[in-house]
Write a structure and sequence with these properties.
The protein is of the alpha/beta class and 231 residues long. The chain has a five-stranded parallel β-sheet with strand order 2-1-3-4-5, with helices on both faces. Strand 1, helix 1 and strand 2 form a beta-alpha-beta unit. Helix 3 packs parallel to helix 4 and helix 6 packs across helix 7. The chain starts with a strand and ends in a 5-residue tail after the last strand. 24% of the residues are buried.
Length: 231
């Protein structure tokens, strides 16, 4: 779905130029020529990004930015300020009020579109961590649960992190030291050989035959890997 951009600007020619170029790039564009109309337009059709001129009649851009950030609903909406070269102090205040970036007039349309895209990328919600399905084995990182054919498997926090890390990299072999760094991190009191203990515990809980593991496999002389789908 196209991203929605609200332009708050009182220069009609600039509005037309911005609207034309942004729509050409695939954005949906609304505009307002003063602060009260802008706030009403935000409530009517919530934008994904706001292009805000600082120098506006009546309510100026700084006050509009202040009001935007007061509303929880719009607090995270990215704001790109348009400023003149002589407004350096206002740029600083605008950034302090919560504007995310600014473009100085006169500007190239290519630069403005690039800034818009960069801001939208930065404000994309983090992708949800999906459940890992490895045959009958299901690992849900969001719920911190493991099941086999729908049957819950109880793992400790460290056992879960170890299993999830290996299952997230099927076919890759990790040494004991690598697993300590990437699973235990800096907060660790275990030795490399202790990894073997945790691997054995995980196998006892998830493997149909722990002595012949189908999931967490030993690569002799190197370390451990989670079986790839082709194994």
């Amino acid at each position: 779905m196209s991203k929605k951009i609200l332009i708050v600007e009182d220069e009609r020619d600039l509005i037309k130029l911005l609207k034309y170029n942004l729509e050409k790039e695939g954005f949906r564009v609304n505009y307002a020529t003063d602060g009260s109309v802008a706030l009403a337009e935000m409530r009517r059709d919530e934008p994904d990004l706001i292009i805000l001129d600082l120098m506006l009649p009546g309510m100026d851009g700084l006050e509009i930015c202040r009001q935007i950030r007061r509303h929880d609903k719009y607090a995270a909406t990215p704001v790109l300020m348009l400023t003149a070269r002589s407004e350096e102090a206002d740029r600083v205040v605008g950034l302090e009020l919560g504007a995310d970036d600014y473009v100085t007039k006169p500007f190239s349309m290519r630069e403005l579109v690039a800034r818009v895209r960069a801001l939208l990328r930065r404000h994309e919600p983090a992708p949800q961590r999906l459940t890992l399905q490895r045959g009958p084995l299901s690992i849900d990182p969001a719920a911190h649960t493991v099941s086999i054919d729908g049957r819950p498997v109880e793992l400790s926090a460290l056992e879960f992190r170890l299993l999830h890390y290996l299952a997230s990299h099927p076919g890759m072999v990790f040494s004991r030291d690598q697993l300590l760094d990437r699973v235990w991190g800096n907060d660790r009191t275990v030795t490399p050989r202790s990894v073997d203990v945790y691997v054995r515990r995980v196998r006892e809980k998830i493997e149909p035959q722990p002595q012949q593991p189908a999931y967490v496999q030993t690569v002799h002389g190197v370390g451990y890997r989670f079986a790839s789908s082709s194994d």
